[in-house]
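Q: What residues go here?
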């Protein structure tokens, strides 16, 4: 009798866990089905909503320190080749100028996170603010 009661309690716990996991699975499926990329600031907000309290700057620092982004001055905040080939990030480039305030043309770039990259970062960045292997 005692063993069957323990099994029933364990079954209830597993069903509750499955119910919570279902919501996370639906969320992950909706992320992977989305078409557009998001900015690093928006990615930091998503991570914060999921219990990882870091902003955009700390997210960049974490990714540089873990070997996902470059550490060279002048090329900071750019993903390494393996992360680009995996489809986690994309680089958006645009040109501004000439205008009254800025007579020269300037080339700007920004790192954006793809849906696949969102899933990668949500999975790898736990609540301890470090990328796990």
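A:
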């Amino acid at each position: 009798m005692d063993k069957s009661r323990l099994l029933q309690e364990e079954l209830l716990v597993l069903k509750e866990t499955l119910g919570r996991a279902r919501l996370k699975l639906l969320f992950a499926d909706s992320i992977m089905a989305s078409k557009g990329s998001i900015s690093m600031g928006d990615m930091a907000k998503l991570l914060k909503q999921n219990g990882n309290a870091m902003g955009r700057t700390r997210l960049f620092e974490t990714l540089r320190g873990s070997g996902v982004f470059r550490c060279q001055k002048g090329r900071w905040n750019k993903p390494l080749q393996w992360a680009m080939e995996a489809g986690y990030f994309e680089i958006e480039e645009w040109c501004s100028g000439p205008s009254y305030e800025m007579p020269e043309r300037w080339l700007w770039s920004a790192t954006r996170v793809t849906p696949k990259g969102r899933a990668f970062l949500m999975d790898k960045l736990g609540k301890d603010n470090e990328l796990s292997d």
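A: Context that may help when evaluating the design: The chain is about 50% helix and 15% strand. Strands lie at 38-39, 89-96, 106-113.
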